[in-house]
Fold this protein.
Amino acid sequence: MAMSILTRVTGGAAFVGMFLVTGWVLALASGQAAYDSYMGLLGSIPGKVVLFGFTVAIFLHLAGGFRHLMWDLGKGYSKGAASASAWAAMAFAIVASLVVWGLAAMMGAL
């Protein structure tokens, strides 16, 4: 049940997070001063927290979609399999987000 709710919540979070991407594109098109201001906002501690949450939401929603795909194929309906796939989806989202942010840090993007 919790994973079902989280999948829906992360879908909404991903939708809202796309406004960040839209803001970035608009700032990019608006010139250097607007871009620098927007990047300053995203580069702040609160901005990075929001971006990390957006990253987790995208990966968790992706994993939830994969779970539903497996169910559409008739796999993973047992209570044990559903619980295991929920935990696996959450672990995947956290690990994948940490890997992406770790790579970004190693490349100097943070």
